[in-house]
Amino acid sequence: MKEDLWANFHIQLSAHYIVIFIMCFADYGLLLLLNKYLPYSKNIFYRIVAGLIGITLICLVILWMFNYMIYDVFHIPEEGLPPFLVKFAFAMTTNIPILLVFELIYYFQSEQKAIADSETAKRKVLLFQHETLRSQINPHFLFNSLNVLSSLIYINPDNANKFTKALSKTYRYVLSLTRQPVVSVAEELDALDSYLFLMRMRFENSFTFTVDKIADCEKNKIIPLTLQLLIENAFKHNIATEESLLHIKITVDPDYITIENNIQPSNDVDKGGIGLKYITKQYKLYAKDVVVTHTGDLFIVKIPYIQQ
């Protein structure tokens, strides 16, 4: 074999490239498998160990295949050929760089995708804020608010002044959210006070509202206006009268902030507004799931925290 090295160089070179091609194909399959079942985000150490085991098995299988072809198919004598350990070491030193190249390509592709997804998420958040703002200042909402205000001016000027301040505070909070993708639960509850004051002036003694604070409201973050929009939905889809009170409760626990209300379906439902499906989409951008439970008597929405 040594004497025929240059005479059969083209054959040996072709065989070498066949081995490299098979390694590339096998390493690419290994990379896809690892990315699916054991990504780096899950456990870096286990991922590295699994990668080493994978390329070791690939080398062993390829060596077995070629040994079978050389010795059993072509009946080439083993004399003059390198031992198994030498061939295995050569295969490993060739295979590891191939896998590293694939890992680097995947890493840069993932970085580019993450940047693109981030930009898409930012655009969707801005769109959400725009739609939310438009929802809050639509003619229907303004018409109801101004109707209440005009009545209060003559009936109770003091409450009219308070109503104007609450309305101003509500819009000021909405306009301040341009650069805030998330806010603390404490900020959201504080802003909710003004909105609830407007609702009390409008619906008077037709609903009850309670807050149960079990967890820290300062550290936990949610998407702005989540609570206001869910409470707005409760009023929009249910009857609220002194005879049939609408009961709304917010519970702040360590894992979720829960908004629940009793079900009293309204026949005249306004189909406009943001709606629960838009809130769900916004939390999907942060890989968070909004949990909705619809029982016979209660409508319950559990909002996950974006940051804790």
Q: Which characteristics define this entry?
A:
single chain, 308 residues, alpha+beta, five-stranded mixed β-sheet, 61% helix
Provide structural commentary.
The protein has 308 residues and is α+β, with helices and mostly antiparallel strands. It has helices at residues 9-37, 44-73, 84-136, 139-155, 157-175, 185-203, 226-237, 276-284, and strands at 183-184, 207-213, 221-222, 246-252, 256-262, 291-294, 298-304. The strands form 2 sheets. It has a 5-stranded mixed beta sheet, with helices on one face. Strands 1-3 form a two-stranded antiparallel sheet. α1 packs across α3, α4 packs antiparallel against α5 and α5 (157-175) packs antiparallel against α6. The model has no long low-confidence stretch (mean pLDDT 79).
Topology:
Blueprint: H1 9-37, H2 44-73, H3 84-136, H4 139-155, H5 157-175, E1 183-184, H6 185-203, E2 207-213, E3 221-222, H7 226-237, E4 246-252, E5 256-262, H8 276-284, E6 291-294, E7 298-304
Regarding quaternary structure, what we see is: single chain
Rounded to an integer in angstroms, the radius of gyration calculated over CA atoms is 33 Å
Number of helices: 8
Secondary-structure element series? HHHHHEHEEHEEHEE
Brief rundown of the structure:
Helices cover 61% and strands 12% of the residues. The protein is an alpha+beta fold and 308 residues long.
